[in-house]
TrEMBL record:
Pfam family, one: TetR_N
Residue span(s) of domain HTH tetR-type: 14-53
Protein's name according to its UniProt entry: TetR/AcrR family transcriptional regulator C-terminal domain-containing protein
Keywords assigned by UniProt, alphabetized: DNA-binding
Parts forming coiled coils: none
Top-level taxon of origin: Bacteria
Species in which this protein is naturally found: Blautia difficilis
Keyword Metal-binding: no
Record-linked PANTHER family: ACREF/ENVCD OPERON REPRESSOR-RELATED (PTHR43479), TETR-FAMILY TRANSCRIPTIONAL REGULATOR (PTHR43479:SF7)
Residue stretches making up the Transcriptional regulator TetR C-terminal Firmicutes type domain: 71-172
Amino acid sequence: MSNTTKIALEDSLKRLLLRKPLDKITITDITTDCGISRMAFYYHFKDIYDLVEWCCVEDGTKALQGKKTYDSWTEGLTQVFEAVLENKPFIMNVYRCVSREKMENYLYKLTYHLIAGVVEEKCKGKNVTQEDKQFIANFYKYGFVGIMLEWIQDGMKEDINELVGKISLTLHGTITTSIENFTM
């Protein structure tokens, strides 16, 4: 039942974002739109930004299902870009209304799991500390998020497949090399 409520809140937020900016939407607007009480909202989220973060992470998690391996990470990244594009009104509204730091944090959570899965897979059988694995995943996460933020800022005009192709060419073999460099 609780996931149903969260999804209803997400749907209401996304519907409302088609009509007005995030900073003009209230919790009452959202709860009235989906027909639940304010108490139910606060049971699940501390504020609207918490709901926004949950929406971003939830959409990204759906996009990444089963795409966290070395052989499928480009497909996973493509699906993250596609999920962002499918939710363009939502993302653009959020991008304009929240601080860059908050937007980065939403995207960091989204991309970290993709990269950490790849790093973890490539580290099997190698003597790499958990701290070093996290460092490698964080390093690439920052690159992905920087590219994605620039793409969002430019209105999501660049073709997703071309963009992911450029990222793939840039990173070809570098994650493996990074892991080898950290192997003790």
